[in-house]
Amino acid sequence: MVGIVERLRKKHPKFNVPNFGAKSRKRVPERWRKQRGIDSKKRIKRIFMGAEPTIGWKNPDSIIGRRKDGDRSRIVHNLPEAEALVNGKMLGDNDSLTIAGVVGKKKRLEIVAFAEKHGVRVRNR
After folding, report:
1. Alpha carbon distance 51, 118 (integer Å)
2. CA geometry: angle at 57 spanning 56 and 63, to 5°?
């Protein structure tokens, strides 16, 4: 599955705000914001300004939500959520659990113990 995901994932340019690398804009972070200026060349889709994120860049549905290694990671916030995923057979062979960042140490250990008992991989212990 590893090679399939990387092969199917579309290569696309970095979608940054225009003039991102300009000297006067060093503090502009790497992110996309739709251009709304009336004179913006990016807004009127001039090729030299670079690509915009559009629906044409979307990846196939079969790999959306998958990691580079082909696994699909499910986020859990508590033990009942993990139990529902495991007991409801909602996890496939290439699925793993990711414990939400807001979960404390005690509950995290409970979830990890439950996952180990059922043979489910946890991404972030």
Report:
1. 46
2. 115
SS percent in the chain: helix, strand, coil, step 5: 30, 10, 60
Report the predicted TM-score, pTM, of the whole model to 2 decimal places.
0.64
Pair 9, 59 in one domain: yes
In degrees, rounded to 5, the angle at the alpha carbon of residue 65 between the alpha carbons of residues 34 and 52 is 20
pLDDT in tens, 70-103: 888 889 999 999 999 988 888 877 788 999 999 9
Distance, in Å, from the CA atom of 117 to the CA atom of 36, rounded to the nearest integer, reads 53
Tokens standing for residue 87: 């007991």
Q: Are residues 79 and 47 in the same domain?
A: no
Q: Where are the alpha helices (DSSP H) in the chain?
A: 2-8, 79-87, 105-118
19 shares a domain with 41: yes
> Does residue 123 lie in a domain region?
no
Residue 64 phi, psi dihedral angles, 5° rounding = -65, 130
